[in-house]
Design a protein that fits this description.
By secondary structure, the protein is mainly alpha-helical. Helices cover about 45% and strands about 5% of the residues. Bound molecules: FE2/S2 (inorganic) cluster.
Length: about 90
């Protein structure tokens, strides 16, 4: 595949993003839900800023305005179970 990839985790290409924007998906949340961009293991760390720039340019909107539309959730870090058991009584 020679086509530029926007989201590596979900294998979403640039042409898929452009087509979705042209079909009317014109917010980051809509694009995420439609294409699953940003829903992969990295949670959009690399692709959401790129997607925002593409959307801002294609929709001719200011980038800060586009960036405000997405709710970024920090990735959760796994914690060992023993961490939660320490200090508890053994009744
Ligand atoms: S590159 Fe898009 S979710 Fe990881």
């Amino acid at each position: 595949m020679d086509e530029p990839i926007v989201c590596r985790c979900e294998e979403v290409t640039l042409s898929q993003v452009i087509q979705a924007i042209d079909e009317g998906y014109d917010t980051l949340e809509e694009l995420k839900r439609h294409l699953r961009v940003g829903m992969g293991p990295c949670q959009g760390r690399t692709c959401l800023p790129l997607l925002a720039r593409i959307l801002a340019e294609r929709a001719r909107r200011p980038l800060p305005e586009v960036m405000e539309e997405v709710s970024i959730r920090p990735p959760l870090a796994p914690a060992p179970v023993l961490l939660f058991l320490e200090g508890q009584d053994e009744d």
